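Annex B.
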Amino acid sequence: MTDPWVALEPGADPAERVRVLRRAHETFTTAGTVPRPVRSVVAESWRRSARAGVGPDGTASVELSDGDLGAYRAEHPLARVMPLFRELMGTFAADGEHLLAVCDAHGRLLWVEGHRATRRRADGMNFVPGARWSETAVGTNAPGTAVAVDRPVQVFAAEHFIRRVQPWTCAAAPVHDPRTGRVLGAVDITGGDGLAHPHSLGFVQAVARAAEAQLALLTPPLSTADIPMLGALGRDEAELVLDGRRTRLSRRHSEIAVLLARHPEGLSGDELLCALYADESVTPVTLRAELARLRRLLGPELLASRPYRFTTAVESDVTVVERRLEAGAVTAAAEAYCGPLLPGSQAPAIVRLRERMSDGLRRALIAHRDPDLLADWAHAPWGEEDLVVWRALAGVRPTATVRARLAALEAELTASAGAAPGRTGGATYLQRPPT
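Transcriptional regulator: predicted structure tokens.
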């Protein structure tokens, strides 16, 4: 097969492929191994589904209904391009006895439209508006997997993880915010085996790109000068870019800025005090003095009080990495990660955020099994003694250099067996990674 993202190569017998896939699915659900000819994108999705605790006999759950669903859909950015989806895909879905579906970035179905009889059949597996169809909820499926891997996906018959979904075939493509690149959701076409064709995958991808172009016209992109940007990864003192001016913040002001950027609703003085100081003897007067100095530095038009908050949205490299990880865009998240968050900070909230962020990214890298991404992490200052990552790298790139480094790390671990290894988020290091 020339394109691993297409379910069936030209000339393949769909019925025979279904039989082979059902046997492979049974092998995986009983023995945990994935035999050929299961595509790599499907095999990886099956493994993610199993790790998430999805069972092959499960079903989707409805999370939003009635008024809650209507209110959520009305405010969702993809509501603005639903007329476009209907114009481009509505007739195709109705005439082909297919369904047009749109989900949000969490895999919740917002709209399911199309052929009436097909919709009644889909109701039996809860393929309905308001139901969660993320990979972590129902396993491999086109809309859920498309938002998980952030690319167009086609899922054919028994490639679906849940058995009751295996009579169906679907193709979906993620739709991004044209300003930020954030995944907003996915557009999907669901129906019978006839959709297992390269044209259906190309079709939904073209529709998704048209929707992004429409969103760009409806909401013109902001000038970078209009968006305050906070850089706090891999540096002890954050840098704020505002109106084209770069301002280097002190360590304490960096901590405050990171926390306020993550809480646009604002934080009270008591909340900030607990977040910043492990020492309970620090008084509110000390914090107010720091905030007064920060307000003089940034200007009262940006920093407000009662509660303390930024008066405009502040983008940060922290939220960029988090959004990409949440969307399953592991490569993009790794590219944006410049190092640990404010590595010298001991503020309780910053320490928790720093560890949660680095642990989440390294777990995603290990699961992703991309040798280049693992090597980048292992050779970075914060990954030089990360034994778990070096083991993962040796599993996918067992070169002499990698094996030698792994052997040296394991020898060091054996030599220091009397001391408890440092741990971060459950992952074993020879010592806590350098920060």
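The two ends are 45 Å apart (CA to CA). The longest strand covers residues 183-191. Further annotation is deferred to the next reporting cycle.
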